[in-house]
Amino acid sequence: MMTNNNEFLGYLRPDGQLGIRNHVAIVYTTHCSLVVAQRLQALFPEGTQIFGYPGGCALREGPLNKIVALGKHSQYAAALVVGLGCEGTDAYMVADAIAQSNKPVEAIKINECGGDIETIRAGSRILVEMLQHASQVERATMTPADLIVGQECGGSDATSGLASNPITGFAADLLIEAGGTYMHSEVNELLGCAEILAERAVNPQVAAEIRAAIEEAERESFGSGRFSWGYGNILGGLTSIEEKSYGCLAKSGTKPLQGILRQYGRPPGKGYYVQIGEPGSGTFHGDPEGINQFAACGAHIAYFTTGCGSTTGGLIPVIKIIANPQRAQLIADNADLDATPVIRGEQTIQQMGEALYAETLAVAAGKRTKSEIYRHYEA
Amino acid sequence: MPDEPNRAILLHPHDNVATALANLQAGESLSVSLDGVHAHVTLRQDIAFGHKFALCDIPEGAEVLKYGMPIGKALEHVVAGDWVHVHNCRSHRWGFHNDQYGVQA
Questions:
Q1: In whole angstroms, how far apart are CA B70 and each of A246, A249, A253, B79?
Q2: What number is the ipTM of this complex?
Q3: Could you give the domains of chain B?
Q4: For a FRET experiment, which of A283, A299, A326, B22 has its CA 20 to 30 Å from that of A270?
């Protein structure tokens, strides 16, 4: 439900965060506890999501920080941590860290419970309580200023730079004008954009940081002998690496760059950020990893622009934007915003950007995205 | 919504190129507009979907602007309606003096 003032009802968490969804998290701390966690999730599919750290046998800071940040996310009313018992990423340690957000958190270990069956029995009883708790949490009024949105591109084609990315940039500007927060990542696709973003930085320190981040990506690109501009791009009409990068940069909108997010947790302020993430923190691959890193930075919603037509989702609601007219059925089944009217010349980027912003507010107010309906909760 | 669909898109009012939204034919006359800026050209070559054409003459060495930003420099004098691509425009930072530019990606 949304009122005329763009207000909607969210979920108030004990640490003051406001969420737009209300799940219980099941967190596995190593590949050895993955199957038990999956069985628990299968018993209670409605209202639970699962994520974790398959490599948790060893304790590494990046992935640990990521799953803790996800556990603290505003869309989780409670979290159950499932461990084996001998892994470095200790389940009690993970639970204690998530519990700093003051939400109900419990941890169980397969070794202590005594195998699959006893762990599933113990975990089930905890989940029943947590799901009941979730159904009773306090609601609170939210506005667009409370929202954090991330942007990911995947399976890009010519329509990404011409329509989908500029549309998300336009919606980002509207969100930021309403007081909200927006982030994207993929600095390695911004070769040649360092000075442009540095000029948008709010202070010299942020300017230096974004310059350094993009220059590092440029060095890596040259060092590996690989440019992200190739024969297919030339056939498609892209004349230079700058042209390709600007098509990507179009997703950033036009607002001042507030900072670079190299750590998980919510951004320090509002407005536009570039998200980079903690080194070696990837626990999944490709686009879902990107979407979930936004979630680990507090994002409520992800925009996902895809030209070829990926069906990818993630832990947070994904608004999928496709502008390739040759993907009509995929758009009908999987997209949340059909951006082909821009490519057909029937609507402007501004008009579709306004439509995306309206869709964003509808999703924040409870409208389920296709990724949610299909349970594309990749993690 | 316009009366008939646009055949090309202007992405920024300062741009001196537009991008084809369909496979366009040499000799075709078309208009693009954005934020009060209008341009009308007759195409001098075929322009494939996703490729660019000049909206005005672009002198040799001048910047080619798309998204309001320089995507490269003109290698030669480009005439309004010309196809603009690697044969007459090169990366400003990478490859302007490289004869193999765009030949081998």
A1: 9, 13, 17, 18
A2: 0.90
A3: 8-90 (2.30.130.110)
A4: A283
